[in-house]
């Protein structure tokens, strides 16, 4: 099984206790361990039943990796109520179960083959966007859950708030989300996943969810059931504020920087750029080059761009010396190894850069940071790398006021309450979160005046009407 990670015994026992809390298993009950590996959770169930003098329920362990099957079958050969199957949990029908417990594999879409991606997209609602296998395990588990049944999974916490998991949150909204227990990030040693134990009951959702936070505090909350992020409810913040825009309302673009797919070819120290290539080069900056200690942007690197300033890729016959550079043996081989060449010219970036937006005065920020901070690119000449987000206001006059607000304590608090967690206490900014950042109307003197003039009949374009969605 891709993404298999052994579960610590202490966590297994904790999860089994949650599984049987308020509902002791009976001999005729059916229990499923999908992706059972060598049987860690089945061992935990045996321990619990022995400790509480209970007979084992009927247990089925499913494992797709044949390497784990012999050990699991050998371990439980003396238990007639335990069956180990060498099957794929995601592609087979398994019936209904009173209990389901497991540690689904953590495998991102980038680790799947095209055949697997297409197969899963046909089978699962949650296989959308940049999905992870554990989301599909959740959906399949909910399908297999008997009425009034209980499911306990340990997964990364990301499903609580990332846009990719919106459909999973919607599905969970049809069930009673009994408990969300946020575990210490060191639970799996050096593997930082921000693990979370989720307990789901197949009954109508009519009670608050118990949330156990990493600081030991406990809260009872009614979480949204339409698929939106759980973070605002968990952090006690509101998404809707009277007298506020959203960032996307006042910007042409809020987006991640350029992904070339071959930085070693396209990114060079500026001093090493051949004079012939200077016409294709722009100063570029990566997240690691941004420091809160330095309010000014500075970079000694340049990005070589095979696109015109309107974002259109240059015809190969017009590349000139750039074509010679890119077709050099070492560079050419690196470019051909990229997955994007199957659908784009061999010298194209992995993602087409919207230079008509990028090459404007803008605000930029790091994608992963301990504390959100924003800088202004007054010249508009910097091309941000993929580890940088850029924000282009509809009115250049709003750059200063917008950046000032983005660096305010109010904005920082909102971002810290809504953004995805990264390792070591860092947070991960994302465009879909940034776009919804509340911005006070009072911060936009120029935008407000233009809006008032338009409403008064003066022929000025209202900069807050057309929202360009990225």
Automatic annotation (TrEMBL):
Substrates-to-products reaction catalysed: a 2'-deoxyadenosine in DNA + S-adenosyl-L-methionine = an N(6)-methyl-2'-deoxyadenosine in DNA + S-adenosyl-L-homocysteine + H(+)
GO biological process: DNA restriction-modification system; methylation
Family, per entry: Belongs to the N(4)/N(6)-methyltransferase family.
Organism: hydrocarbon metagenome
EC number(s) per entry: 2.1.1.72
Record-level Gene Ontology MF annotations: DNA binding; site-specific DNA-methyltransferase (adenine-specific) activity
EC class of the enzyme, as a word: transferase
Protein name: site-specific DNA-methyltransferase (adenine-specific)
Keywords, sorted A to Z: DNA-binding, Methyltransferase, Restriction system, S-adenosyl-L-methionine, Transferase
Domain Type II methyltransferase M.TaqI-like positions: 83-182
Keyword Transferase in record: yes
């Amino acid at each position: 099984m891709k993404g298999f990670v052994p579960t610590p015994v202490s966590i297994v026992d904790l999860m089994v206790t949650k599984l049987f809390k308020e509902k002791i298993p009976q001999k005729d009950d059916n229990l499923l361990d999908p992706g059972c590996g060598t049987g860690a959770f089945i061992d935990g169930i045996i321990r619990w039943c022995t400790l509480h003098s209970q007979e084992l329920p009927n247990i089925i362990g499913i494992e797709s990796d044949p390497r784990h099957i012999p050990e699991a079958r050998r371990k439980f050969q003396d238990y007639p109520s335990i069956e180990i199957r060498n099957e794929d949990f995601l592609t087979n029908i398994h019936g209904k179960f009173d209990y389901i417990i497991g540690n689904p594999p953590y495998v991102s879409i980038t680790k799947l083959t095209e055949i697997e991606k297409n197969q899963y997209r046909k089978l699962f609602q949650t296989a959308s966007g940049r999905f992870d296998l554990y989301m599909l395990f959740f959906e399949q588990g909910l399908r297999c859950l008997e009425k009034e049944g209980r499911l306990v999974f340990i997964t990364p916490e990301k499903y609580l708030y990332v846009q990719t998991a919106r459909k999973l949150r919607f599905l969970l909204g049809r069930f009673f989300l009994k408990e969300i227990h946020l575990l210490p990030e060191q639970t799996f040693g050096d593997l930082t996943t921000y693990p979370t134990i989720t307990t789901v009951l197949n009954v109508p959702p009519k009670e608050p969810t118990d949330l156990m936070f990493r600081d030991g505090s406990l809260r009872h909350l009614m979480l949204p059931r339409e698929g939106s992020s759980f973070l605002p409810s968990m952090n006690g913040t509101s998404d809707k504020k009277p007298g506020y825009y959203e960032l996307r309302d006042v910007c042409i673009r809020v987006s991640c920087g350029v992904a070339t797919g071959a930085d070693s070819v396209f990114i060079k120290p500026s001093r090493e750029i051949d004079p012939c290539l200077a016409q294709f080069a722009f100063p570029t900056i990566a997240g690691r080059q941004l420091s809160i200690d330095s309010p000014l942007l500075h970079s000694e690197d340049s990005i070589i761009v095979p696109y015109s300033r309107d974002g259109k890729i240059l015809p190969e016959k017009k590349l000139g010396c750039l074509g010679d550079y890119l077709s050099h043996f070492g560079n050419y081989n690196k470019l051909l190894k990229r997955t994007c060449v199957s659908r784009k010219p061999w010298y194209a970036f992995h993602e087409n850069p919207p230079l008509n937006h990028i090459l404007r005065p803008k605000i930029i920020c790091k994608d992963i940071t301990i504390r959100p901070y924003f800088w202004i690119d007054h010249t508009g000449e910097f091309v941000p790398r993929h580890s940088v987000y850029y924000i282009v206001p509809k009115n250049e006059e709003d750059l200063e006021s917008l950046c000032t607000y983005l660096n305010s304590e109010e904005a920082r608090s909102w971002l810290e309450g809504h953004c995805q967690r990264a390792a070591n206490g860092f947070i991960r900014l994302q465009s879909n979160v940034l776009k919804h950042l509340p911005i006070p109307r009072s911060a936009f003197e120029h935008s407000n005046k233009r809006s008032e003039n338009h409403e008064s009949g003066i022929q000025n374009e209202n900069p807050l009407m057309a929202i360009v969605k990225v």
